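Page 37, continued from 36.
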């Protein structure tokens, strides 16, 4: 579950890149140019996708710490309705963002 979600949190970022580029062909051409210029790991699009992946991992750790081990997986596999799951994720996300804001205030 987590390996898939980790990968997905990175790759879905590229969907926005495709849409922002005006389509797959433009995206691939632009990515190719960036790849030649920066290398794969240093392209701006990869860096953005990596940031989103880190956010997911931070959120996952937060939910495990505050809602129990494997909280997201248990939620997704639960018998709750989709609306209830969405509501729970939204509540947990808001808790995560509040915690993040509080931790920034400590610096």
């Amino acid at each position: 579950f987590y390996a898939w979600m980790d990968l997905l949190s990175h790759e879905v970022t590229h969907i926005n890149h495709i849409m922002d580029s005006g389509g797959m062909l433009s995206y691939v051409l632009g990515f190719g140019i960036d790849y030649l210029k920066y290398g794969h790991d240093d392209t701006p699009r990869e860096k953005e996708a990596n940031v989103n992946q880190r956010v997911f991992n931070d959120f996952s750790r937060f939910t495990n710490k505050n809602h129990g081990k494997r909280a997201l997986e248990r939620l997704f596999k639960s018998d709750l309705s989709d609306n209830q799951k969405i509501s729970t994720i939204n509540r947990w996300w808001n808790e995560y963002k509040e915690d993040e804001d509080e931790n920034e205030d400590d610096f």
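The chain has a mean pLDDT of 95. Flag for discussion at group meeting. The CA atoms of residues 41 and 47 lie 7 Å apart.
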